[in-house]
Design a protein that fits this description.
Length: 462
């Protein structure tokens, strides 16, 4: 019997011995992403009656698989990291395949100002305005070479240590004090996975670089892997295993605690009752919910002030290998609106191009309609890389800046305290919080599962 089965058996025995409340459900889970589904299945395994509410029309949260140009494309989480033991266990349980990742990115060229620069030419290029030893660092490596070495942590859990509060300030300020040039910071700011270096906690970025304190050895020789059929296959299988089907299109507007349980009100006017609630929605969605009693001040501030990193993607198909004309690799880092153009390669060659626009740079793109975004990406690529003109066609675009998702991931602000408010789990009497913003271990998909399972155990122990 594996670890999860042993845990479920123990919790089930404990839970079954209790007197059930008069509530219709033992627990309501808000959000059918990986965090919510992990929580719901862990509760169900222990014998609890669970209802999952999802405002969207599908499960998966930030795991979303789209089709375009004859391709199946993950627009959210893609990679199953080598330490993602929870993801691998859920996949094995539900017969979802995981295989060594089949796509890769090749080398990069650079479009800086009005110049195209090969990586080998960067140190001596007139476009290189960095200073001193920085000039030898490729633009794509600036963050790894200048910011990461400033980190005082090596494991994710260390980020919540109050003793490290001095690093919970703007990454811009920390880099400036460390002697990074204005140009190096500008280039990093263009591509960092945060709204901006000025608006991001350095400690928050360090947490992204760190690993789980309990990370086991990588599973198999392949390292990073992917879910067969697209990442959304896994949450779909998890949702299908629930005894009570997920309620889609169910937008929660209020959560009220009573002496005997919790009442959850939907925008339809319907009220549902349960013993406990697991709040596994992004904080941008949680901020739209009225809580009674009110959340404690520190928790309320963390919810209302939450910032998520925007990501907007535009997917393009090359109709001929235009990169052979200018001699640069097909992937390109750009210090203008396109930011990064990743050539997704398989054994058959370049499958597609993904324009990946991050953080504050995505704001203008997010205000456009999809057709305008695609047209702008094609024309902007032709402007910075003339060899692509007339040789690329748009497929579709995707933005994560919706009112419920907010962005692709939680991006702690300077001074946010880096999750200390969520320790140990952020319980508000009968309401427990899950989601990657509460994580203590690994990143991405694994973080969601870790927090969902942890919140479920907290409910069962309450």
């Amino acid at each position: 019997m594996d670890r999860r089965a042993l845990l479920a058996a123990g919790l089930a025995a404990t839970f079954a011995g209790r007197v059930r409340s008069q509530a219709r459900h033992d627990a309501i889970v808000v959000g059918a992403g990986l965090a919510g589904l992990s929580a719901a299945l862990t509760l169900q395994d222990a014998g609890a009656r669970v209802m999952v509410l999802e405002a969207q029309d599908r499960p998966g949260g930030r795991l979303r698989t789209e089709s375009g140009g004859g391709l199946t494309i993950d627009v959210g989480a893609v990679e199953v990291g080598p330490h993602y033991r929870r993801i691998r266990a859920w996949a094995e349980r539900f017969g979802v395949g995981i295989r060594p990742i089949t796509r890769r990115f090749g080398g990069f060229g650079y479009a800086i100002g009005d110049r195209l620069v090969a990586a080998a030419d960067w140190p001596s290029s007139p476009a290189n305005l960095t200073v001193g030893a920085e000039r030898e660092i490729a633009p794509a490596a600036l963050e790894a070479r200048l910011l990461r070495p400033l980190s005082p942590i090596r494991t994710v859990d260390q980020a919540a240590d109050p003793a490290l509060a001095a690093f919970d300030r703007s990454a811009f300020d920390l880099l400036t004090e460390a002697g990074a040039s204005a140009e190096a910071i500008r280039l990093m700011d263009r591509w960092t996975n945060a709204p901006s270096l000025a608006g991001a906690s350095a400690l928050g970025l360090f947490r992204e670089f760190a690993r789980s304190p309990n990370a086991p050895p990588p599973t198999g020789p392949e390292g990073a892997s992917e879910i067969v059929g697209g990442s959304a296959t896994l949450p779909a299988a998890m949702a299908a295993a629930l005894a009570v089907p997920v309620r889609y299109g169910a937008l929660v507007t209020a959560v009220s605690q009573t002496p005997s349980g919790v009442e959850v009100r939907l925008d339809s006017g319907e009220t549902l009752r349960a013993g406990h609630v697991v709040m596994a929605a992004p904080l941008t969605a949680v901020a739209l919910i009225a809580f009674s009693p009110h959340l404690p001040p520190e928790l309320s501030s963390a919810v209302s002030g939450a910032v998520y990193a925007r990501v907007t993607q535009v997917h393009l198909l090359p109709e001929s290998p235009f990169w052979e004309d200018d001699g640069l690799p097909p992937s390109l880092y750009v210090d203008g609106p396109l930011e990064r153009v990743f050539a997704v390669e398989t054994e058959r060659g370049v499958e597609r191009l993904v324009c990946w626009i991050n953080g504050d740079g995505a704001i203008d793109w997010d205000q456009m309609g999809e057709a305008d975004r695609v047209e702008r990406a094609v024309s902007e690529l032709a402007r910075v890389r003339p060899s692509s003109a007339g040789k690329v066609r748009g497929v579709f675009s995707w933005s994560w800046a919706g009112p419920l998702s907010g962005g692709i991931r939680h991006a702690p602000r300077p001074g946010e305290g880096l999750g200390q408010v969520w320790q140990p789990g952020g319980a508000h009497t009968r309401v427990f919080f899950a989601g990657e913003h509460t994580r203590r271990e690994e990143h991405g998909m694994e973080a969601a599962c870790e927090t969902g399972e942890r919140s479920a155990r907290a409910v069962l122990s309450a």
